[in-house]
Amino acid sequence: MAMLGKRRPMRAATGVSGLHGRQGERREASGVGEQDTLEIRGLAHDGRGVARTALGKTVFIEGALPGEHVRVAVHRTRKRFDEAHVQELLLASPERVVPPCPYFGRCGGCDLQHLALPAQRRHKQAVLEELLGRQGIALAASPELLAGAGQDYRRRARLGVKVNADGDVHLGFRARHTHRLIDIDACTVLVPALDALLVPLHQLLAELEAPRQVGHLELLESDQAVVVVVRQLRDNPGDVRRWQAFARAHGVHLARWLGREAPELDWLTAAPALRCRVPGPDGDLALGVAPGDFLQANAEVNGLMVRTALSWLAPLAAGERVLDLFAGVGNFSLPLATAGARVTAVEGNPAMVARLGENARANAPGRGLDVVARQADLAAPPAVRALLQEAVPDVVVLDPPREGAEAVSRALVEHPVPRLLYISCDPATLARDAAHLVHGGYRIRRAAVADMFVHTSHLESMLLFEYPGSARQAQGASSDG
């Protein structure tokens, strides 16, 4: 049952002549006939509609919304559930809207553009509550909502490049469930500076001598500059000159990852000082970043998350010890240090550890930041236990990748801390780790959902835990009353 509601990759396409017979077999096995009407009872975590057949079998339906009546085509049958798409919409939901993007339904990027924005956000709040509920965890109140603009928000993107057998160059995002590229000339969620580059980049790729040597493109907008990073398998001097001319014509900075096995970053224009702002208690801080560093795609929502972290953890007593794990380049470390905490910031990527240290030094004048940047493998239980025993933190901040922080969560049960702020990009692994913590004695005091990727089923979450009996927990309970 754990996999219900999760998409699985499509198998390789088969020939059309064999497909109709196999679809017929699937339909017969599923018990869904061509004229059967299904009522959509809810949304799965990935944004698909959920219905049940007359025999009680669950069907996950692409493009269907709660309350709708649809006829479907089943494209995959499994023992416990089927996967289908809408063939005919008989009764539409009042929350169905016209998708703002012409590529919706083909491009694999956004999967909820047919649902009104307020309903998207209610769905995401409900997903967090449901996943925690499956672990026996009930929130005292619905999660707070941290949300920004509904379009023009994404400041970084990765675009696939592919040349077909006829020599046609494709640039865009992957089609849903496949490795096939959908050519994209415009994207409603990219910031305007990146959106404006899509057509000229496609034109340039078609003019290269060796477009097959380009693996993908990364686009990034910082506060000062726009950067295009080319993943290049082999050097081609003629194409280098074309890329440099493109950079001059469009006012962008250009770099490439060159090589097949261990690519190295090579700037083809002057290397810019890339900085992105994050809020601090006494004004914005500037974080230096480089291609390859992790950077939240939505600057506005990231700022809301940082402000929420500062608010939930306030007041930080002077010199209070904060252990920031999966710290990146200092997104939470530096604002917390500005608030007066002594921060030990730990990251696994050595390049980002170096950048974090540079960012702490660059923002220190006039603020007296106390930040120590360290590298450690945070998936290794001995390393995590050693960090907790050495740092003896008053507060732990976690911001792990999608895999979550199970080793850290288990260690925090063995070595409890007064307060723990967990920031997650995957609610399922967050719920798993929250179960370890709650069953180990922690209590959830605050919860929030951040709509980092609008029009998608992806959501970011924040949970504030406290360990009963700590002085800080008692103080917080008193101030709340």
Automatic annotation (TrEMBL):
Residue intervals of the TRAM domain: 29-88
Active site residues per record: C425
Compositionally biased residues, Basic residues: 1-10
Region (Disordered): 1-36
Reaction(s) catalysed by this chain's protein: uridine(1939) in 23S rRNA + S-adenosyl-L-methionine = 5-methyluridine(1939) in 23S rRNA + S-adenosyl-L-homocysteine + H(+)
EC number(s) recorded for this UniProt protein: 2.1.1.190
Residues annotated as binding S-adenosyl-L-methionine: Q296, F326, N331, E347, D377, D399
Record key words, sorted: 4Fe-4S, Iron, Iron-sulfur, Metal-binding, Methyltransferase, rRNA processing, S-adenosyl-L-methionine, Transferase
Entries under Gene3D superfamilies matching the protein: 2.40.50.1070, Nucleic acid-binding proteins (2.40.50.140), Vaccinia Virus protein VP39 (3.40.50.150)
Segment forming the signal sequence: none
Xref: InterPro entries: 23S_rRNA_MeTrfase_RlmD, MeTrfase_TrmA_AS, NA-bd_OB-fold, SAM-dependent_MTases_sf, TRAM_dom, TRM5-TYW2-like_MTfase, U5_MeTrfase_fam
A Pfam match: TRAM
Superkingdom per UniProt: Bacteria
Annotated [4Fe-4S] cluster binding sites: C101, C107, C110, C187
Enzyme class name: transferase
Entry's family note: Belongs to the class I-like SAM-binding methyltransferase superfamily. RNA M5U methyltransferase family. RlmD subfamily.
Role: Catalyzes the formation of 5-methyl-uridine at position 1939 (m5U1939) in 23S rRNA.
Protein's name in the database: 23S rRNA (uracil(1939)-C(5))-methyltransferase RlmD
Source organism: Halomonas rhizosphaerae
